[in-house]
Amino acid sequence: MKRRAAEKIVLLILFVLVFAPTAVWLWQRWTMSIWHNGHGMFVPLIVAYLGYQTLKRHAFQQEESSAWGFLFFIPGLVFVIADNAIHTQLLSAVGLIFCIIGLVILLLGLKRARALAYPLIILFLMLPIPTAFIDRFVLLLRYISASGCAYIVGVTGLP
């Protein structure tokens, strides 16, 4: 029992060390501006609450490890390694979510992970929308906004 707890603590420490730069980057993105990804900082809190409530309901289920977690954990680590080469940080953030899902399956088993599927999927909402994706729509939205304002000014007769 003590050995299992020690293994979990070591795993948690390694996880924090690997993903600390990603967490710092996410925090910077979330707090950069209220107009850009300001909601992201609340997503982990909501997921933690939903996960806690779900695990309380499924407390009767026995903890069972499942090797199926490696199907998510290993690609998550590959994303982190690839991101170290290209320095986007977004790929590492996706890897963080994949690793969290993988660790849940590895440590809690498939039944409890299935119960946690909804909170785990919500984690993807904490990812910042890539700037390249937003830039394509900003000009279109500005054009629509300017056209709408010009129409309203014309209708109301404002100078």
Secondary-structure map:
Layout: H1 2-32, H2 43-57, H3 70-86, H4 90-108, H5 110-115, H6 117-122, H7 131-156
Helix pairs in contact: 1-4, 3-4
How many independent structural domains?
2
**Mean pLDDT over the full residue set:** 88
Question: Could you give the count of β-strands?
Answer: 0
Q: Strand-residue fraction?
A: under 5%
The assigned structural class equals mainly alpha
Largest sheet descriptor: none
- Overall geometry comes to elongated
Rounded to the nearest angstrom, the radius of gyration is: 21 Å
**How many H/I helical runs?**
7
Write the element-wise H/E pattern from the N-terminal end onward: HHHHHHH
Helical coverage, percent range? over 70%
- Poorly predicted ranges: none
Spatial separation of the terminal alpha carbons: 77 Å
Structure description:
The protein is mainly alpha-helical and 159 residues long. It has 2 domains: 2-128, no CATH class; 130-159. It has 7 helices and no strands. It has helices spanning 2-32, 43-57, 70-86, 90-108, 110-115, 117-122, 131-156. The longest helix has 31 residues, at 2-32. It is elongated. The chain starts with a helix and ends with a helix.
